[in-house]
Amino acid sequence: MILLFSLFVGLGRTIMELGFVFTEETVRLSIKELVTNVLSIVILLELVRAFVDYFEHERVRIEILIEIAIAFMIRELMIYIFAGNLKGTDVVFWTLGIALLVGARTLTVIYKPTK
Q1: Domains in the chain: how many in total?
Q2: Are 108 and 63 in contact (CB under 8 A)?
Q3: pLDDT above 60: residue 31
Q4: Is 51 inside any structural domain?
Q5: C-beta of residue 66 within 8 angstroms of C-beta of residue 105
Q6: How far is 31 from 108, CA to CA, in rounded Å?
Q7: Which of 5, 50, 79, 109 has the most CB atoms at less than 10 Å from its CB?
Q8: Residue 57, class by beta-carbon neighbours within 10 Å (0-12 exposed, 13-18 middle, 19+ buried)?
Q9: Could you give the CA distance from residue 32 to residue 35 in angstroms, rounded to a whole number?
Q10: What is the mean pLDDT of residues 79-93?
């Protein structure tokens, strides 16, 4: 219930802040906040899905946890990009980390564990 409430609060906040995107003084800041909020909502959706899956099957699937990690890493990368704090090597390491998680996600699809 707490996750669903947080999801609705985040969604409502994002919709309310959507109007700030169109004002000229705060366009860059508003777009940064909008992207951050949308990616945070994606992470909350994945967490809700993980809890629903746990209550249905009484186990947590590794695929869902890896998807949450991928969404979180993409969110953090976007925050660093908007802040302008990234250097060339940082981009390589972030990309490598995301690629490794995507590879792990692919392996979990290919090699599903048996019960």
Answers
A1: 1
A2: yes
A3: yes
A4: yes
A5: yes
A6: 34
A7: 50
A8: exposed
A9: 5
A10: 82
How many C-beta atoms lie closer than 10 Å to residue 94's C-beta?
A: 17
Q: pTM value?
A: 0.70
Is 83 inside any structural domain? Answer: yes
State the residue range of the domain holding 20: 2-110
User: Of the spans 16-25, 30-39, 106-115, which averages the highest pLDDT?
Assistant: 106-115
Q: Is the pLDDT of residue 30 over 70?
A: no
Query: In the structure encoding, which two tokens stand for residue 78, read together?
Result: 């976007």
Residue 67 lies in a domain: yes
CB contact set of 3 (below 8 Å; sequence gap of 6+): 44, 47, 48, 51
Per-residue model confidence as pLDDT tens digits over 34-64: 777 778 778 878 888 888 888 888 887 888 8
In a domain, 115, yes or no: no
